[in-house]
Amino acid sequence: MGKIIRLAGIEVMPGEKFQDFITVPGTEYKTPVTIVNGKQDGRTIYISTGVHGGEYPGVAAVSEVSSKLSPEEVSGAVIFTNCLNYSGMTGMYDAVVPEDGENINRKFPGSPEGTVTDRIRDFIVREIYPQVEFIADLHSGGAYESLSSCVFFPAACGQEMRELVLDVCKHIDIPYLVASTASDGLYSYGCHHGVPGMILERGGHGECDPFHVEGYKRDLKNILIYFGLLNGEYEPVSAKKTVFEHASYIGTDVTGFWYPEIELDTEFKKGDRLGLIKDIFGNTLKEFIAEHDGKVLYYNGALVAIENWTNIVAYGWLE
Ligand SMILES: [Zn+2]
Which of 136, 139, 170, 294 is the most exposed place for a label (fewest CB within 10 A)? Predict the structure, then answer.
């Protein structure tokens, strides 16, 4: 016998499917959810997307996959949050929940007494985590970000979890696998509390490129096959994998105009210049120099760079 999935006051029995908006407890915040509770017993997987409002490919892929998936074909259950920051995405906010200006993917575990975003975090931790055995959180570069497709995997939650997630990555068609020690985000807080998971990143710049949507659909199918929820053959994976054990995440302490001298998928050497911030008249305010041989994961794709806010560049170390 399968198990009952319970979420925000609804119950989904084995063999049933739920697809509708739910209200996050303690708020009036509505977010779209799909629960496919298989007829057959098995694992329960959480697929999240739309945490950031300017990141589209994951939302488009989950929309299609969650709509087609039926309880008849699933062994176990899948909980999808189809577009967690729904008000942010439909209001065209890049990263934050407009109700309170907060980024969901920080400050987990949240609080049942805090802001709307705090309560969304708390809802995920208290109602979703205890029911699931794996978390896959689908992101993209932000509306002003250029990004190489990459996965962030937990590197500070023990060898067993690291190896499991890297094994799942064998079936994910994404080239760069980045060790992460983060602990206060949607998937990373889960990892630090015993639920393995990963962030997947494809696309960026506010685009919904079909190449990345199709890629995400294949990744999702393979995750469900990996954990035994679906039968059938894995979708083929062609990406050659690079594991980055270390990465640099560089912000800026000046505001100005950013002129990158790097490209995605291109190696650079320690000492190479990554780019410049200039003032409006072209005078250099700051130079960014690589401290390691590396490869770009993502970089600011806007002309403007804002002090203590813009992610200038993130790169993995080649050692
Ligand atoms: Zn994101």
Answer: 170
